[in-house]
Amino acid sequence: MRKSEHPGFIFEGQLTKEQLAFFDKNGFIKFRNFISPETVSLFIDEIKRIEKQLLSEGVEYVNGIPLKFGIDTNGKVMIQRMAFLSQFSKPMSDFLKEPRFQEFLKFLGPYDGRIGENEKDGLILNHYINTEDSNFSQLGWHTDSPRDLFLGLRRIMPMLNVGIHLDDCPFEHGGLRVIPGTHKQNIFRMLFRKKYFIDHKTDKDEVGMDVKAGDLTVHDGRLWHRGAQSPLKGEASRRRVMYVPVVTGEYRPKHKDSPVPFYHKLGAIILINRKVKLDPESYKVSNLKTEEVEA
Length: 295
Fold this sequence. Notes:
The structure is a single chain. This protein is of the alpha+beta class. It is built from seven helices and 17 strands. It starts with a strand and ends in a 9-residue tail after the last strand.
C-alpha cells in the first residue's frame, strides 16, 4: 500500500485533457475544494435533520433500500448508511443538478450517462465511525458494477461513483483505497479477484490519498476499492462521504414500492444482521450487532 503522490486536481468548469487521461489510466480522480466549507456545513446540517426525521418516523427502508443503523459516540442510535438523501433535501437535489456535474459524464465516453439521483441507491451517505458499538467502521474490497447482474440486467453497464467528502481524512487515518487500473481488468478478475466485502486486507498495489472536507472523488464502477478503517477511535475517526452514481443504459428509477435488491439481501445472509429495535423517544437501540457489507 502506498500514498498517492498526486495532490489532486482543481476543477475549473470543464475537464481537461490531462484530467481525462489521468482517469482513463487509473480509473479514479480527486478534485480539491470542489465544494466550499459553507456547503460542507450545510450538507452536514441537512444530514442531521434527515437522520432525525427518519429515526423519529421509524423508517427502515427508503425506496426498497435498507438503512444501516449503529451506535454513535454518545450511546444513541445513528444511521450509518442512508439512501436517496436528495429526495429529502432541496439543497442536495439542486447540487446534483449543477451544470458542472454534467462534465463528469465525459468519463463514461463513448457512452451516454446521467446522474442517478433516483436510480440504484440514489445519493447515499456512508457514515464511518470506529467505536466498540459501531456497525460501520470500514468497507471491504469490492467493485460497484456487478450489481447490474443482481438487478436483472443481462450485462454489466458502465457507471461511475462520485464521492463528496465531508470530513478531513489524511491517508494515515484510513479512508478510500483503490487499485489503479483495475477498471480495465477482464470480467473474471472483476468478479473473483477478491472476496467481495469480506476481504479487508491491504493489497500491495493499492493506493490511498489525503482527503479534505470539500474534496470530490470519482471512480469507475469496475475499479477495485475499499474503505479502510481508521486507526483512531471515537470522534476522531468520524468520516462522512456522500456518493451518487452516474449511470448508463435504460432509465430505472426507484420508488416507495421498489423491492429490496438481492445484493442487499445477500449482505444480510452472509453476515449476522440482527433486528434493530428503535426507541423514537431516546433513539436508543438494543440487541444490535451488525457487520456492514454494502457499498
